[in-house]
C-alpha cells in the first residue's frame, strides 16, 4: 500500500471483489479513454439495432460482420467480470459496472457529481431503456437510483450495499434528458438512509427512499 494512507476499504477486499492493481493512474486514464471510445460505438450499435429497418439480408450480413469483431475481442479476455480495481494512488475503476462502467455499453453511462451534501447526474436515455412506449422502463429507473443513492451513501469512501429500496413512480418518465439527485437523510450505526429522485423538465417523475448498509468489518468512514 502507499505510505500516504491505507486504502479506505482495504478490509472490504473479498467482500466486494475489490482488486488491487499496480497500473499507474496515467495508464488507467489512457486505457479508460480508449475503452470508452469503443463503448460509445457499441452503444450506438445497440440503438441502431433497435431502430433499424434494413432488410433481412442486410441484417444477416451485419450479424456476420459483428460476429467476426466479437471473435477478435475474445482473443484476449478477463477470466470473469471486471470487478472494482484500484491502484496505490487510490484511483479506482470499475469498467464493467452496469450503470457507469466505461467499458459497458449497457450503462447509459451515469456520471455522478458529488457536491457537499447532494449527488447529482444528468443523463440522456434513448431507445435501449424503453419500457412503456416512449417512457423509461421502471427497472431502469430503479437501477439508476440504486446507483446514485449508493454513491451518496458511500460518499466514495466506504462500502454501502443496498438493503431496501422503495420506489414511487409518480408519473411516466420520458426517454430523453433527465436529472438525478440523491442525498443522505440520516445515519444510524451501519445504516445510511438515503433519498433520491429522477426529474424531467416538469419536475420529479420518480422518488425513492433507501436503506444502505455498511457490511460488517468495513470502516465507518475516513479516506477521501
Ligand atoms: C476497496 C474499495 C473501496 C471503494 C470505496 C468505495 C467507493 C464507492 C464506489 C462505488 C460506489 C458505487 C455505489 C454503487 C451502489 C450500488 C449499490 C448496490 O446495488 S449493492 C448490490 C445490491 N445489494 C446487495 O447485494 C446487498 C445484499 N445484502 C447484504 O449483503 C446484507 O443483507 C446486508 C449487508 C445489506 C446486511 O447484512 P448484515 O449482516 O450487515 O445486516 P445485519 O447485521 O443483519 O443488520 C444490520 C442492521 O441493518 C438492518 N438491515 C439488515 N438488512 C436490511 C435490509 N435489507 N434492509 C433494511 N435494513 C436492513 C438490520 O435490521 C440491522 O439494523 P439494527 O442495527 O438492528 O437497527
UniProtKB/TrEMBL annotation:
Catalytic function, reaction form: (9Z)-octadecenoyl-CoA + H2O = (9Z)-octadecenoate + CoA + H(+); (5Z,8Z,11Z,14Z)-eicosatetraenoyl-CoA + H2O = (5Z,8Z,11Z,14Z)-eicosatetraenoate + CoA + H(+); tetradecanoyl-CoA + H2O = tetradecanoate + CoA + H(+); octanoyl-CoA + H2O = octanoate + CoA + H(+)
UniProt-listed InterPro entries: HotDog_dom_sf (IPR029069), THEM4/THEM5_acyl-CoA_thioest (IPR052365), Thioestr_dom (IPR006683)
Family indicated by similarity: Belongs to the THEM4/THEM5 thioesterase family.
Name the record gives this protein: Acyl-coenzyme A thioesterase THEM4
Native organism taxonomy: Bacteria, Bacillati, Actinomycetota, Actinomycetes, Streptosporangiales
Signal peptide: none
Major location category of this protein: membrane
Presence of keyword Transit peptide: yes
